Amino acid sequence: MCRSVHRRKKTLSLPGTNEELRKVASSWSPLSTVGTSRPCSNTSLTDRSTGITGIGGTVVKPHARPNVVRLSRIDMHDDATEFRLDVSESELQDLRTRLRNARWPEPETVEDWSQGVPLAYLRELCRSWATEYDWRDTEARLNALPQFRTVIEGLGIHFLHVRSQHADALPLVITHGWPGSIVEFLKVIGPLADPTAYGGDASDAFHVVCPSLPGFGFSDKPTRPGWGIERIADAWAVLAARLGYERYGAQGSDWGTSISALIGQRDPEHVVGIHLTPPLAPPDPGTLDDLSERERAALASLEHAAEWESGYSREHATRPQTIGYALVDSPIGLAAWIVEKFWAWTDCDGYLENVLSRDELLDNLMLYWLPRTGASSARLYWESIRQVDAWISGEATNTISVPTGCSIFPKELQRPSRRWAERRFLDIRYWNEPERGGHFAAFEQPELFVDEVRAFFRLVR
User: Fold this and answer.
1) Can you list the domains of the chain with their CATH numbers?
2) Residue 256: C-alpha distances to residues 69, 236, 250, 301, 376 (Å)
3) Is there a catalytic annotation at residue 439?
4) Which of 133, 248, 381, 430 is catalytic?
5) What pTM does this model have?
6) Which residue, 38, 313, 367, 371, has fewest beta-carbon neighbours within 10 Å?
């Protein structure tokens, strides 16, 4: 795996203002062209699992389920093509049919979520999914943003690229994790890219690059082992270079935390800093006889997670293919598997809709259901979770020296103290512990998240 990155001079020129985005979105048509109309002959955009193939929306239907999307791709650059969602109505109808024909188990024998998602809650969520949820609204919101695909090391990568209209904007690569998606960031992209439109300062502007992880969303699914977090970090550095960015920042949560840390470690000559929610660092054995109250709570949280919250991770890490059959075939299985983690990991006071609307939960589910990523997204645990577990509870040997900002939200799973984190992250410039928020900070508390990102990167621009 190559650690050095060839920096390209060419840049994808994209519209910056919301009005410009709306104009571009309204002008897109299935076979329209923008700039050069020559297709990327060196780029294969076949999705083997869904039957999506070719340039301009040619589709081969798979047998098990109808085609997921018809894609319009318009050549913008030798290295990237525009991407537009157009989900077939037959796919949406298939989903509704599966939801209505579901076979349900008996109710749980307890009065809470301790055995998993309560039957009554999940039945109501799936009823709404089948009868009220409007995918077309989400599809339109995604299509109003500049979306692209590019091939890196033979794998097609889907990404959002929203360039700011402000001249001194800093490029920022934001990475999601499991069970999230790019949907997590839809409420923060606007304030980050166009701060003055939201009452902010132009000096805080970012060019936002938001890729979908390999095997997630509308990125390709790896067909061979090897796409672990180091390779993804290197791919994101290639992506930044391909977009013409000589200096950029990285931000991440969940898998994105580890990937962003590795980007800083492996591309330090171009990375101005990394912002992590949270940083992953093990307890310092030298402090165990002198723990603060907060450190004791952090250790208790790790112990609780190991006993009660890690079953999904062990299944993903050992048999991702096995669980994948259920997640790809059953929408109620997928909903239960993912929504349970949103309930457990958000700062919601026991009621998920306190922080996320039902439609927002379903938006995120759709980015797993439509592209059939139940197995492929789980497979990242098979590739890399043992390494990440060592960073959480092992020794602080994998050090990071680039400037680092850390935001530790109160319902986050891992909450290292600053003195623990400083053993692994050697140049912490910013540390804050917001009063509310959980594992999906950008999704749950978008204003707080934006404040945290801005506060750190002001120190390193």
Assistant:
1) 1-13+88-461 (3.40.50.1820)
2) 26, 11, 9, 21, 17
3) yes
4) 381
5) 0.85
6) 38
